Amino acid sequence: MRWQSVPAICLAAAAILLVGAAWQEDVPELTASDAVASAEDALGAAGLDATVEPNPVPTVYASLTRDAVEVWAVQATVRSEPIELQVTRLGAQPVALDDRNLDGSAYVLSDVEYESIVAHVDNPARDRLIQRNALVTFAAALIVALALAHAAVNPRKGPR
């Protein structure tokens, strides 16, 4: 092995370790703005003209069958009626969608609209992490390729 290649190989190994560490990182909790963006996207995907309140309320969702989880309660107006989508702060899972009209006598959304909203709740925090990690992986691949190329074509010889 050429001694001049050792730093390049160490750099390549560090890049590979960095990529591994980046992909092991947990997805951060949703921010309030993430929750709003996710609700807007889900309502839009359902084909609804909705106004989403910019300040969701942090709260706890508790049911008889699940442990309590921290959620963002996102308020929106659809067809002049308020609805509330509760999305978990960790994982961006929809846990409740209250679409009863003001007097509770009917539902604002059709079954198809309801299911579409629930199916299209996304996780902007996860998307950002994946995008960042893809860039880190690409940069690391370039570093590894350059380090290997340097090690392969370096004409100097090491000590004997």
Task: Annotate the secondary structure layout.
Blueprint: H1 6-24, H2 32-45, E1 50-52, E2 57-61, E3 69-78, E4 81-88, E5 94-98, H3 111-119, H4 124-153
Antiparallel strand pairs: 1-3, 2-3, 3-4, 4-5
Q: What are the defining features of this structure?
A:
single chain; 160 residues; alpha+beta
Can you write the helix and strand succession as a string? HHEEEEEHH
- Uncertain parts: none
Number of helices: 4
Shape: elongated
Strand content: 15-25%
Which class of secondary structure composition applies to the elements? alpha+beta
Mean pLDDT over the residues: 89
Specify Rg, calculated over alpha carbons. Answer: 25 Å
Number of strands: 5
- Ends distance: 11 Å
- The percent of residues in helical segments reads 40-55%
The total domain count is: 2
Q: Can you summarize the main beta sheet?
A: 5 strands, antiparallel
